[in-house]
C-alpha cells in the first residue's frame, strides 16, 4: 500500500490485457491444461496449479508466499509454448491482482492524489526558482545606461581559454549572471592537457561552483536538439555553437513564457573575431544566423567588455 503508483500502473496493465474469453475465442493453439485454466481464470479462486518459469524463479519472494502455497514446486513442470506461457501468465495476474473493485478504486484514488502532490511540489520548486532568479536579477547593479545589455552572459570555450581575466571581471561586477553550459565545460576538459588557459578556467569554475557564487552558474545538459554527429566531426566549432545556442534557448524558455519577448536577454560572448562573418565556414555561418533568429546575440568577449566599460 506504500506504492500507490504501482497499483495505478497495474490497473492500467489489467485493462490492456485480453480477457480469458478473448483468449479462448482467439483460435490460438492451446493445450488442454491451459484451456482448463482459462475457463476459470476470472473466478475469485483459481484452482489450477501449473507452474510458470517466473514462479520457479520467484519461489522464495515473500510477497508471493500466499500465492505460491498452492504450488508443488517438486513436481515436473509441463513444457508450454511461448503463447501458452503468456496465456497462463495472464491468468495468474488476473487472479492474484484483481482484488475487489472498491479496493482497486481506493488505490487508484491514492495514486492520483500522489501524482497531484508530486505536481504541486514540482510547481512550488519552479516558483521558488523563478522567485530566486527575479530577486537575483533585481539585485543586479544595472545603471540605466547599461540596462540594454543582456543580464545573462554565456561564454564559449575560447572566451574562457583566451580571456579568463575578462570573464572574471564580468562575473564579479554584480551586473551580469554568467551561465556555463555543460558543452563548454566538456570543451575545456578536452583542451586541458595542452592548453594552460583551459586548466586555469577549470580551476576557477570549480572554485566558484563550490562556494556557490550566485553570479556564475553551471547549466546542465539540456537535451539533444543539436546532436548533429556528422557536424561534430566536420566542424566542431559550429557544433559547439549550436549546443551553446540550445542552452541559451532553454534559459530563455525557463525565465519567461512563450509569449514574452526574450530579445536581449542572453548574449553569447566568444573568443572568435566576428568582424567578417564571411570568413567562417558555412556551418558556422548557419549557426550564427540561427542565433540571430532566436534573438540571441553573439559578441566578441573583448568587444562586449569594451562596450560595457564605455557605458560606465
Give the C-level CATH assignment of the largest domain: Alpha Beta
The CATH architecture of the largest domain can be named as 3-Layer(aba) Sandwich
Query: What does the radius of gyration come to?
Result: 31 Å
Enumerate the spans where pLDDT stays under 50 for 5 or more consecutive residues: 98-102, 256-260
The class by helix and strand makeup works out as alpha/beta
Q: Kindly give the count of domains.
A: 2
Q: What is the CATH fold-level name of the largest domain?
A: Rossmann fold
Arithmetic mean pLDDT: 77
Q: What gap, in angstroms, lies between the N and C termini?
A: 64 Å
Q: What topology, given as strand order, has the largest sheet?
A: 3-2-1-4-5
Portion of residues in beta strands equals 5-15%
Order of helix and strand elements from N to C terminus: HHHHHHEHHEHHEHHEHEH
With helices defined by DSSP (H or I, 4 residues minimum), what is the helix count?
14
Give a short account of the largest sheet. Answer: 5 strands, parallel
Shape: elongated
CATH superfamily of the largest domain: 5'-nuclease
Residue share in helix: 55-70%
Give the number of DSSP strands.
5
What's the arrangement of secondary structure elements?
Layout: H1 4-16, H2 20-24, H3 32-39, H4 53-57, H5 82-97, H6 101-139, E1 152-155, H7 157-162, H8 164-172, E2 177-181, H9 182-191, H10 196-211, E3 216-219, H11 229-234, H12 236-255, E4 266-270, H13 282-293, E5 297-300, H14 301-311
Parallel strand pairs: 1-2, 1-4, 2-3, 4-5
GO molecular function, one term: telomerase RNA binding
GO biological process, one term: nuclear-transcribed mRNA catabolic process, nonsense-mediated decay
Subcellular location: Cytoplasm; Nucleus
Amino acid at each position: 500500500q506504500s506504492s500507490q503508483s504501482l497499483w495505478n500502473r497495474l490497473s492500467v496493465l489489467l485493462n490492456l490485457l485480453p480477457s480469458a474469453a478473448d483468449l479462448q475465442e482467439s483460435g490460438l493453439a492451446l493445450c488442454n491444461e491451459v484451456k482448463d485454466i482459462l475457463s476459470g481464470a476470472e473466478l475469485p479462486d483459481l484452482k489450477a496449479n501449473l507452474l510458470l518459469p517466473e514462479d520457479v524463479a520467484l519461489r522464495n519472494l515473500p510477497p508471493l508466499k500466499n500465492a505460491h502455497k498452492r504450488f508443488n514446486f517438486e513436481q515436473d513442470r509441463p513444457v508450454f509454448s511461448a503463447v501458452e506461457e503468456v496465456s497462463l501468465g495472464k491468468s495468474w495476474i488476473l487472479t492474484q491482482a484483481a482484488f475487489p473493485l472498491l479496493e482497486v478504486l481506493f488505490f487508484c484514488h491514492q495514486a492520483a492524489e500522489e501524482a497531484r502532490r508530486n505536481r504541486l511540489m514540482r510547481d512550488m520548486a519552479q516558483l521558488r526558482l523563478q522567485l530566486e532568479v527575479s530577486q537575483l536579477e533585481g539585485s543586479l547593479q544595472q545603471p540605466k545606461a547599461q540596462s540594454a545589455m543582456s543580464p545573462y552572459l554565456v561564454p564559449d570555450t575560447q572566451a574562457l581559454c583566451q580571456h579568463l581575466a575578462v570573464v572574471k571581471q564580468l562575473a564579479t561586477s554584480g551586473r551580469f549572471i554568467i551561465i556555463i553550459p555543460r558543452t563548454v565545460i566538456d570543451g575545456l576538459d578536452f583542451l586541458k592537457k595542452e592548453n594552460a588557459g583551459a586548466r586555469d578556467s577549470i580551476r576557477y569554475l570549480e572554485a566558484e561552483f563550490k562556494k556557490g557564487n550566485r553570479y556564475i552558474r553551471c547549466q546542465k545538459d539540456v537535451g539533444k536538439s543539436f546532436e548533429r554527429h556528422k557536424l561534430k566531426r566536420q566542424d566542431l566549432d559550429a557544433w559547439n555553437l549550436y549546443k551553446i545556442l540550445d542552452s541559451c534557448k532553454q534559459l530563455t524558455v525557463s525565465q519567461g513564457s512563450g509569449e514574452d519577448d526574450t530579445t536581449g536577454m542572453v548574449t553569447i560572448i566568444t573568443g572568435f573575431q566576428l568582424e567578417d562573418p564571411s570568413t567562417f565556414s558555412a556551418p558556422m555561418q548557419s549557426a550564427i544566423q540561427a542565433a540571430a533568429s532566436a534573438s540571441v546575440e553573439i559578441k566578441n568577449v573583448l568587444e562586449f567588455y569594451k562596450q560595457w566599460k564605455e557605458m560606465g
